[in-house]
Amino acid sequence: MKIRSNELFRAARLVLGALVLACGLALAAEPQKTPPPAAASNPQGLDTRIQSLKQEAMELNRDLLVLEEELLFPASTQVAVFVSVDVGILFDLDSVQLKVDDSIVTNYLYTERETQALHRGGVQRLYVGNLKAGKHELVAVFTGKGPRWRDYRRGTTLTFDKSTDPKYIELQIRDETRGQQPEFRVKEW
């Protein structure tokens, strides 16, 4: 039976989280042999210890997530694709399909809240993956409602060179007011 590395990391994170929680509960429930007079009359001391343990568990979980990200997506092979919307009056985004080297890597269907967040200036991380160094082709297909609420489907293509540095690509949806059409741009960072 072959175990994928991300499944192994998730299992390790769950086991470690359960261990930290169990230790915290054991410490909180452990009777003190000679309780200090202030702690015996003040239950806030126990609450403070529990809050401290919760904070440590959250910090440990954050560190594990960072470690998992670094191990699964090393900087030498990492590619990240983001989506942003500038104004967005001429195009109401419904979904994005992303292909890298003729393989569909993600299909994303937007909720109303997510499109509102994009219109307010938010940037969504659409995809993170690994690519070897060399030439690659990225194709993004956007669907939604265009001018006069007509169904709109438009794609954009980018051929890029992946080096040993991380690659960041932004898919921008902009209003082109002269032609009264949405415009789709790709920006490399």
Q: How would you portray this structure in words?
A:
This protein has 2 domains: 5-72; 78-188, Immunoglobulin-like, CATH 2.60.40. Helix 1 runs antiparallel to helix 3 (44-72). The protein has 189 residues and is α+β, with helices and mostly antiparallel strands. The chain has helices at 5-29, 37-41, 44-72, 112-119, and strands spanning 78-86, 92-100, 103-109, 123-130, 134-145, 151-162, 167-176, 181-188. It starts with a helix and ends with a strand.
Q: Major sheet: order of its strands?
A: 4-1-7-8
Rg, Å, rounded: 24 Å
Mean pLDDT: 82
Span of the ends, CA to CA: 40 Å
State the major sheet.
4 strands, mixed
Which shape, going by the Cα principal axes?
Answer: extended
Name of the level-1 CATH class of the largest domain? Mainly Beta
